[in-house]
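The pair is listed for reference:
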Amino acid sequence: MTSASALLDATGTLDVERVRARFPALAPTADGRRVVHADAPGGTQVTSGVIGAMSAYLRDHNANSHGGFPTSAASDAMVGDVRTAAAGFLGGWLEGIVFGPNMTTLTWHFSHALDPRVGSDDELVVTHLDHDANVSPWMKLAERTGARLRWVELDPASGRLNLDTLAVSPRTRLVAFPAASNALGTVVDPAPFVAAARSVGALTFCDAVHAAPHVPLSQRADGIDVLVCSPYKFFGPHAGLLSADPALLAELRPDKVRPAPDEGPDRWQTGTATFEAIAGIGAALDHVADLGMDTIGAHERALSQRFLDGLSRLDAVALHGPPDAAQRTPTFAVTVRGHTPAQVAAHLAGRDIYTWAGHYYALEPMRALGLLDAGGAVRIGFVHYHGAEDVDRVLQALADLN
């Protein structure tokens, strides 16, 4: 892999063209067109290293785990290495890393394990800023147990949560919150949620899917009990990660088949692991570690500021979410006067700019903003493989709609 220093220009900032060279999908098309993959919040492109790691696993040591032969031992060693890298990336526990198909499946799985700990007089705290994968599992847990939901409200004007509505009681069993909003790009400080939960002995559950490619994560230092994310949002394959305090994982009794391990994170992994995906996760983590989150963050803040400055000159375009680059990821929900979000996304696609339109499973934020029944918003998302040229192309395409 190219060294990190080789990806920086003479000023010490990220050289986007060198970064893009790691991503085969970002090469110009056969007829020379350059696509702006601004659909990154729904899934990023992957590096050559990810593709190579998955291919090499299937070619060289494709075998199930815990066997007494070399290819199985190689699988086990690879899983151990990636578990170590994942714990470092998330700031979690080595023995608390659980692999799965995606964040949503892992969250449902974990929510069912909480059934015995939640009663009809208990409460679960959720927010109006979350992706539905961090809402519906807790709604269903409340339905199964008779518990009550408490909501942390979203301030539509700022795109931030109103912490005055963060309320807990001695009956609170769980406080669920996002590390960042997949819809609005809002970055969330975990401290108030962790403090509230700790004050009454409740668990904290953090959805870090959207935050993972953009901001450093420090689960243990932040005091978060359970954190989940999806590697396909940070340049890896379609998969999920759950990181939890090993003591908590040992206390709970997840659904599993009888012969499956009774100890360690493997007891939480239903069925055979997707080993080739785990190999790809390792390569994605290598890529992020190679660059460093500080370098990525500085580059992305510059992209955000450029986009925000450009939006301020487009009277027909409304931004939904924080207007401050320091308080957000480079993910932007916008609406354009006189055009539906679907029409705007189609216009952008016609310019080789790929974006999402709708609610992107963020039902609560869209409802709070009054956009849910109006087709949602257009979501434009940048990551570290985008450059100023990409931002300017999007701004020009939006301006042309005016």
Q: What stands out?
A: The longest strand covers residues 172-178.
